[in-house]
Write a structure and sequence with these properties.
The complex is a heterodimer of chains A (about 140) and B (about 270).
Chain A: H1 34-64, H2 67-77, H3 80-107, E1 111-112, E2 115-116, H4 119-142
Antiparallel strand pairs in A: 1-2
Chain B: E1 16-23, E2 34-41, H1 48-59, E3 78-81, E4 84-87, E5 101-104, E6 111-113, E7 116-117, H2 120-125, H3 148-155, H4 165-169, H5 171-175, H6 182-192, H7 200-207, H8 221-225, H9 232-252, H10 257-260
Parallel strand pairs in B: 1-5
Antiparallel strand pairs in B: 1-2, 3-4, 3-5, 6-7
Classes of the chains: A mainly alpha (about 140), B alpha+beta (about 270).
Chain lengths: ~140, ~270
């Protein structure tokens, strides 16, 4: 590359129009910083959220098809590979949920009687709703 | 001088620190930046900017960088210090001891020379969000009155000093040059939340786009980098929520769009 056709200078370098240097964004920009890595992991966790949706739909279909199909589904779900996938998926989904609840107060401004509800309360409310929803699910499963 | 050990005048064991500064001299035919090390005195009361000034005054007068106020309000001395976007007037050298301290130009902007970046992209993005008060009609008695609660609603977003640290911290800005970016959107929110303003819908056209709020993936680093506590990431997410609500309302009730402008997010649910 000659000085004349260097990046950032359509007409080449002149004393009054210096040639700019543009730093390319590296492909692995997201491994250089912890916060960027956490962000990419959070984005990636959506894939595992989708996996649980698919898993649930498969379960519903098996239940709809009768006892034999349900038993086949249970046997398939007990396969070590599926268990391993589900354990990894659970880790990502919990990470997804926790980071989501922690970010919620930044996006939501809630007012009660003209006063702004403190961010901790909003995050706390989200966690409370999570616990209540989980308790209901456990109660339904065990009852 | 409180600490004799760091006093350059005592002649005793003087502490020094190395500053590893990015140089780029296109006028000398350089095609890429290089780094240059400078050994400077380490003093308790010196920020990185004082170190740069020491280099400029006593070691190497060819070093180029921007600075003005030295007190964190002009927003011109932003650089990467050890890879983190910071105002160099607020970053104390002792916090980086024993060094070396890496000083680089802000990321996501083209470099003109040494530590000076070209900020044209930011300057072109800012006016796109119409950062001024858009009025329906002038106030009757010549002034707009606001309650303290109405001022508090937008004050945080008005603290921006255009230092561009958030643009340097944001990977989306680096990946997509058309993305409006954190400060511009936070500034739009500053006017949207002002009770005197009626420009919400005008700005929505610019902001509720792929290059606007929907380009943001909530990395959150803009808020971490901001030296003024503006929280641009929060501003963008709040905006997403209200833009989504707005388009849902427009879908359900297409005709009453204009009437709702007056009913936007303000403490009293309306204008002054």
């Amino acid at each position: 590359m000659t000085v004349k056709d260097a990046p950032g200078a359509p007409g080449g370098y002149t004393e009054f129009h210096p040639r700019w240097y543009r730093r390319p964004m590296p492909v692995f920009w997201w491994v250089r910083r912890r916060s960027y890595l956490a962000f990419v992991a959070r984005e990636l966790s959506s894939v595992f959220v989708a996996w649980f949706v698919v898993f649930l739909l498969l379960l519903i279909r098996a239940v709809g098809q009768g006892d034999a199909a349900y038993q086949r589904f249970l046997d398939w779900a007990a396969n070590p590979f599926v268990i391993a996938v589900n354990v990894i998926a659970l880790g990502f989904v919990v990470f997804h949920a926790i980071t989501w609840f922690n970010l919620a107060p930044q996006a939501m401004v809630v007012r009660m009687r003209g006063e702004r509800v403190p961010p901790r309360m909003i995050a706390g409310g989200n966690y409370l709703a999570w616990v209540v929803a989980s308790a209901i699910v456990i109660w339904i499963v065990l009852a | 001088m409180a600490d004799g050990a760091t006093d350059t005048n005592t002649g005793t064991s003087t502490d020094t620190i190395t500053m590893r500064v990015t140089r780029y001299r296109p006028e000398d035919g350089e095609l890429e930046p290089t780094t240059q090390d400078y050994e400077i005195p380490l003093r308790n009361d010196w920020a990185v900017l004082d170190g740069l000034n020491h280099i400029k005054d006593h070691i190497d007068a060819t070093l180029s960088y921007r600075w003005s106020c030295r007190m964190g309000i002009c927003g011109s001395c932003g650089m990467l210090i050890n890879g983190e976007p910071k105002l160099t007037c607020e970053a104390f050298l002792t916090d980086y001891a024993p060094g070396p301290v890496r000083v680089e130009p802000l990321a996501n902007f083209p470099v003109i020379r040494d530590l000076v970046v070209e900020i044209g992209s930011f300057m072109r993005k800012l006016p796109q969000v119409k950062p001024w008060i858009i009025e329906d009609e002038p106030p009757g008695d010549g002034e707009h009155r606001q309650t303290p609660a109405q001022v508090a609603e937008y004050q945080q977003y008005s603290m921006c000093i255009n230092c561009m640290l958030c643009y340097s911290a944001c990977p989306i800005v680096g990946l997509d040059e058309h993305f409006l970016g954190p400060a511009a959107i936070a500034l739009a929110q500053r006017y949207n939340l002002d009770s005197r303003d009626h420009g919400v819908l005008d700005r929505l056209e610019v902001l509720s786009t792929d290059d606007g709020i929907w380009g943001c993936t909530f990395v959150g680093e803009c808020t971490t980098a901001c030296p003024k506590g503006v929280d641009p990431a929060g501003a963008i997410q709040r905006y997403k929520l209200s833009a989504a609500t707005e388009s849902l309302k427009a879908f359900v009730l297409p005709k009453s769009r204009r009437a709702r402008t007056a009913n936007r997010e303000t403490p009293n649910g309306g204008t002054s």
